[in-house]
């Protein structure tokens, strides 16, 4: 494992262990911001400190960009760590195990390493650009050629995109596809990478965690594009993703 990915995994696992313990006493979780688009708990802040400690100890000159603590510019500007210490905090706050810790490393504007740890499932997902993706040290790949009529799809969106989601879900269901909704699109991408889902749809989310999830999906052989199927996501309002054959069918349906 690359040294950068190894530190990311160590930091994410340390934070995830604390989250797992906290999930056993939900009454002790303090909600700081209850807005669904910026949900923050006391656990986010504690996990953020843990992750930053590991990164700063190993690479004191690197920059860090965290959803919680913001951007901390280091001497070495070309390397930036992208941190989301608690993805799916609303789920954790009610005891629903679809949540995780995301740490990614961006070099010269490109995400080269990504780690996502899901404490509730005791799973750690690691990807390095050009080296593939692993779940608990086992290589993962998207489903290569699933039958669309028996496929499972993830859906997730903000309220303003609900009509688009329902239309997409209805069109897919008409062809036999079934929905699975975790509330965390980054986890949906990872589940697609590991073959649990065959694809999915989400509104565009330019988040710290999504950057890492995209690399994991791509390294597992998945495709992702805009609502028109364009692989350039800078102007995308929606995301369509899946294995190659499912991705093509989903983009046709969305069009």
Q: In the residues, how many domains can be counted?
A: 2
CATH level-1 class of the largest domain? Alpha Beta
**Which bin fits the share of residues in helices?**
25-40%
**What is the strand content?**
25-35%
Q: What is the molecular shape?
A: globular
Q: Within the CATH hierarchy, at the fold level, what is the topology of the largest domain?
A: Fructose-1,6-Bisphosphatase, Chain A, domain 1
Strand order in the largest sheet: 4-3-5-6-7-8-9-10
3D structure, described in words:
By secondary structure, the protein is α+β, with helices and mostly antiparallel strands. It has two domains: 3-139, Fructose-1,6-Bisphosphatase, subunit A, domain 1 (Fructose-1,6-Bisphosphatase, Chain A, domain 1, 2-Layer Sandwich); 148-254, D-Maltodextrin-Binding Protein, domain 2 (3-Layer(aba) Sandwich). 34% of the residues lie in helices and 29% in strands. The protein contains seven helices and 15 strands. The protein has helices spanning 3-22, 42-58, 89-93, 162-174, 185-193, 208-219, 244-254; strands at residues 31-33, 40-41, 62-66, 70-72, 76-87, 100-107, 110-118, 123-128, 132-135, 138-139, 152-156, 178-180, 199-203, 223-225, 238-242. The strands form three sheets. An eight-stranded mixed β-sheet has the order 4-3-5-6-7-8-9-10, with helices on both faces. Strand 11, helix 4 (162-174) and strand 12 (178-180) form a beta-alpha-beta unit. The longest helix has 20 residues, at 3-22. The protein is globular, with a radius of gyration of 18 Å. The model has no long low-confidence stretch (mean pLDDT 93).
């Amino acid at each position: 494992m690359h040294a950068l990915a190894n530190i990311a995994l160590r930091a994410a696992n340390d934070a995830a262990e604390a989250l797992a313990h906290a999930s056993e006493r939900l009454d002790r979780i303090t909600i700081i911001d209850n807005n669904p688009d910026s949900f923050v708990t006391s656990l986010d802040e504690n996990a953020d400190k843990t992750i930053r400690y590991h990164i700063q100890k190993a690479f004191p000159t690197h920059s860090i960009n965290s959803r919680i603590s913001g951007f901390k510019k280091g001497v070495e500007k070309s390397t930036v760590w992208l941190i989301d210490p608690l993805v799916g905090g609303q789920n954790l706050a009610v005891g629903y195990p679809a949540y995780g810790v995301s740490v990614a490393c961006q070099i010269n504007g490109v995400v080269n390493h990504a780690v996502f740890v899901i404490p509730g499932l005791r799973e750690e997902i690691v990807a390095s650009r050009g080296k593939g993706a692993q779940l608990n040290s086992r290589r993962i790949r998207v489903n290569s050629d699933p039958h669309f009529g028996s496929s499972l799809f993830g859906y997730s969106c903000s309220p303003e995109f609900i009509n688009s989601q329902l239309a997409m879900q209805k069109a897919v269901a008409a062809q036999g596809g079934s929905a699975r909704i975790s509330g965390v699109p980054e986890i949906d991408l990872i589940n697609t990478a590991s073959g649990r889902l065959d694809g999915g749809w989400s509104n565009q989310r330019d988040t710290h965690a999504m950057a890492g999830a995209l690399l994991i999906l791509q390294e597992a052989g998945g495709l992702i594009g805009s609502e028109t199927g364009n692989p350039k996501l800078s102007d995308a309002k929606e995301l369509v993703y899946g294995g190659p054959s499912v991705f093509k069918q989903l983009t046709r349906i969305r069009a």
